[in-house]
């Protein structure tokens, strides 16, 4: 199990690095900058130590040697600082490219996922992965990756210099470094699951917040502010506790490692002082392995700090990497989702569609344990209007989902012009339909652009024509900039009824041979509804239409009305025929006009 987890973490690290390697020229330059900057920083203590030895010379201070070494030390540190600044700029550039590629790949993947994914995943959680999780990865790559490269070179370089200065004093690190490593590994195993939980809880909180904010009017209308606030606080508390717990246990790593490193440096100074005193007194000969000068002690102390510092930093970096890995895992989880099933190699193109649609003994359920549609058979002939009515949960919208092949049937067949839809290219199938749904969707753009969305290359004259047919032209003309008026996000600066009229105009502009209307007039008043029905009657001529409606006055002229109850067709016929049956449809119709 541990091997699998380790392999999984290495896999995530490698995937992150592949994003970095795509900017390999910049990455190679960053590596070179790292090597040069750290090499210059490592030379600084050497020159300062030589300057100290020149000052402490028994024969008197050699000011020329002191001057030369101080100048060299300043130059090394200055150049190192400049290179570090350039390196930081390069890494910011690389990290932004990584973030861009990752967001692009994630969003492109989202556009290929089946509707079932969005039906079972909260929108807020998806947005959290696009924003928060990728930003977390970005912060780690832009800062921590540089720190890792710097730390590795500094530790190795410092060790080499310390080995040259005094081999006996390195024994201290032989004891303290393994303690640091074992403690870091032990603590990281405890902390890693906490960061995964933190990311998950934050995603759940964002998902709930997005859902509640989108329904704020309903919440206020039902005076549920306190209840919603209580539920939010529960999720907020879970997210806060998960965040605190992860940070709390992770925060112990830095101070603990810092304590070990400070202890090791103190021991270095004590041992160095003892060796220096014995070297000065002549007890330790200059040829001895234990001989050390004052400058050598100063150098060793500086190098020991450089050696210990990255180890301490590495504990903090590991803490950040835990968070980044958890965030990357959530991002990759979506990227690795199976896309909508590809069309078969033998999938047929759907051209010159007549519009004959048939359901033959269709069974379907969103989950294996619950069947929604039970043996549905429908014959929608070319140019005919099929209306579907029934109580909530009867399966009306499910039929639309199957028509568009958002889901595939469990058994039975659905055909268009005699072709089974599983054997038709999805793009062609969906282009054959135009839809007006109860839940309208408008994007941020002009009114004209929103209407023209229904037809590629639509002219302004065509846009105005369908706007007139949808009875929205006069309203648009009275907007501040007419058809060039910018609609805000999802059209929140216009009423629901006007949004619905614009989406109806958009559907009218499409030349698709089949039409789906799902409560298309639910958000307009009765007078406007009558006007729209007249316009839709012209539009629907010659098209195969599927209409879902609760207001039965809108489907009186349908060629066939299907009554769904408990996933089965309980009644079938036109308006007059169903009224004469005196069944569910008749009772429902009469109840609306009592």
Sequence of strands across the biggest β-sheet: 6-9-10-3-11-12
Q: Main β-sheet, in a few words? A: 6 strands, mixed
The averaged pLDDT comes out at: 83
Amino-to-carboxy terminus distance = 68 Å
Total DSSP E strands: 12
The chain-level structural class is: alpha/beta
Query: What share of residues are in beta strands?
Result: 5-15%
C-alpha geometry: elongated
Number of helices: 19
Specify Rg, calculated over alpha carbons.
36 Å
Low-confidence stretches: none
Percent helix, as a range, is 55-70%
In a nutshell, what does this entry contain?
The chain is α/β, with parallel strands linked by helices and 594 residues long.
Description:
By secondary structure, the chain is an alpha/beta fold. 64% of the residues lie in helices and 10% in strands. It has helices spanning 2-21, 24-55, 63-110, 115-120, 123-165, 171-214, 216-221, 225-251, 253-281, 294-335, 396-403, 426-431, 447-452, 460-469, 473-477, 496-509, 526-540, 575-581, 584-593, and strands at 357-364, 373-380, 385-389, 411-416, 419-420, 433-436, 445-446, 486-487, 514-518, 544-548, 560-565, 568-573. The strands form three sheets. It has a six-stranded mixed sheet with strand order 6-9-10-3-11-12, with helices on both faces. It has a four-stranded antiparallel sheet with strand order 2-1-4-5, covered by helices on one side. Strands 7-8 form a two-stranded antiparallel ribbon. Helix 1 packs across helix 10 (294-335), helix 3 packs antiparallel against helix 5 and helix 14 (460-469) packs across helix 16 (496-509). The radius of gyration is 36 Å and the shape is elongated.
